[in-house]
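Input/output pair, single chain:
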Amino acid sequence: MLVIGTASSSEGLHWSGRRHDDDGPGVTRGDGVGGLFEAIFHALHDGEQVAVGFPAPLGVARDDTDGAAPETALARVEVDSPAVRQLAALLTELGRWRPWTVVSTALPRWRATTSVLVWETALPQDAGDAALDDAVEGFYALVHDRADHGAELASGPVLNLAAVAARRAELTVDSAQLHEPVVLVDGS
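Output:
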């Protein structure tokens, strides 16, 4: 399993992750969507599950979409959110090079497949390595403590931007997730 937390700004993406496997844990760091794609691609190629967290709200209240189509609502958010834009770019690359990849935003669905889980971090977009490492550890704790439970995070209907971005990239995503909240990990 490879778990990665990201920090994002208009200047670029920085990421830090840790594998938990038989060879022992180790930290992996990098910059840019391309490097993140390569790390995820290789982990998936090796048959690992991948979880990647982004520091932006990945759910929008349905009332805030003004009835727009999901892809239109995603495009509106991408304009103002470097993290959502970078998530969409990552999923587009996965769609280009691994179109059979399954993307999930719910722990139970993710644990049942070798796939990519997109999760939301409660970190500032420009978080440093220590905060990213804390978010990764927070994800591992969540998996350990709540392995068979989803995250009940939203009150009222939501539009799941990560699921919309995965669908736009022509990746496999359960259509029910379009209206379910994204797993949230507080890295503190």
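The CA atoms of residues 42 and 65 lie 36 Å apart. Confidence is low (pLDDT under 50) at residues 147-152.
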